[in-house]
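Minutes, project check-in
Item: structure for the 182-residue chain
Input as provided by the requester:
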Amino acid sequence: MPNISNKDVESSIVNCAKDLFIQRGYEKVDMKLIAKKCNLPIGTVFNYFPNKSKIFIKLLEDSWNYTFNKIKKLNSLDTNSRMDRLIEILYDDMCSRKTFNTESINLDLLEKQNDYVINSIAHIINSFEHNPKDIVNYLYSTTFVKAILDYINELIINSHSSRKENLNLLSILVDKLMSNKF
């Protein structure tokens, strides 16, 4: 019999839930369906996660940690390239999360997740090497990060423009924020 680690079981549950959230939407997925998709007894699923919202939060945390790791690698770029890549990474990764179909998830859960994301991004950016005149100095602000994330979210939800057009618009908005002309 193969030796399966707790981490493998947990990953399997999260990945199966992710597939179901994408296919059916958060509201139409329950713990029984997740257990069935994973070929696990429902009791095993409950041993790892007390409810589907905990699975969803784990899914978001894993997804955002992937994004954070990409952002951390931007430190080696010059300031302008870093900003452009930061916007691109955030936009692309947030677009990929749109498929999770979160239309009816508890807003308190998402609000807590947003605070975690905003603070984490601000912390990563603030840790970048930079000189005193670098525009990155302004980015430590959680308010600035929240504004960027809000703009991206609005574009993802409401824009029918291309990725390139949306990234250009985001670049203009960030430039205006940075120059205090907004």
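Outcome recorded: Residues 1-50 form a domain with the Arc Repressor Mutant, subunit A fold (CATH 1.10.10.60).
No further action items on this chain.
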